[in-house]
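Letters spell out the chain; backbone shape is given numerically. Both lines appear below:
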Amino acid sequence: MRIAAIVLLGVLPGLSFAATQEGSEASALHWLQRMVKAIKTENYIGRFVYLHDGQLETLEVRHFATPDGEKSHLIALNGAAVEVLHDGQQVICVLPDGVSVNQYAVPKGLSPLVPDDPERLARAYELRLLGTARVANRSTVVLGVLPRDGFRYGLRLFLDRKTALPLQADKLDIEGRVLSRILFVSLMAGAEVAGFDDELVLPPIEAGRSIVSRRGIAHRSVTSETKPKWRFTDLPSGYRLAQRRLLSGEADESTIEQYIFSDG
């Protein structure tokens, strides 16, 4: 959705403005590119709060980039005791039902966390440096990702000056109101986590619990020569077909053709 620049450039507590408009977009793209790289390659451990739909959750995340690929461990610190482990090949969800640990295969080729191509994203959004702020006792650069049309939400990202990791991420509506917020309250990165084990260890499985594999949906990529059953026209500017797959379940012989569109 379109976000008026005057809203993002208004007076915000703890936010100072030092960037000029000239050259701002090029510098903003540089910060976005740094963030994309940092999310994938930095080692970090942090605690953050997630505000959404009138709810507030507290979580801890551990992320390590290893020779075997990215590994991450997400732990809910309030509410239901849920843990999610991701090693690049599968996601394991430890649920508080006292019965099962759900295990999912991870399809390759599309990350929900970061844009595939920051430069392509910059064609659909105006990138703007909004100033500086302090988050989790660390200095940050504030990056505005402002949609150029009315088909997308806006983002306000607070990027750690040292690592470029996002320490705060606000999703904004057309009026500039915060729809959801991720806010780190503590972060250790790089050498600060050198002594921590980067192995993902499944939490102890209590007696009576079992690992349940959720691999019932098989998927395979579709070649460009395969004629699609659906045709899409008048997509918003910047959106493209990022992935087309055929999904089939073990329970029956039905097949679902899945289309994933992205503007990043």
Observations:
- The two ends are 16 Å apart (CA to CA).
- The mean pLDDT is 76.
- Helices lie at 5-8, 24-41, 118-124.
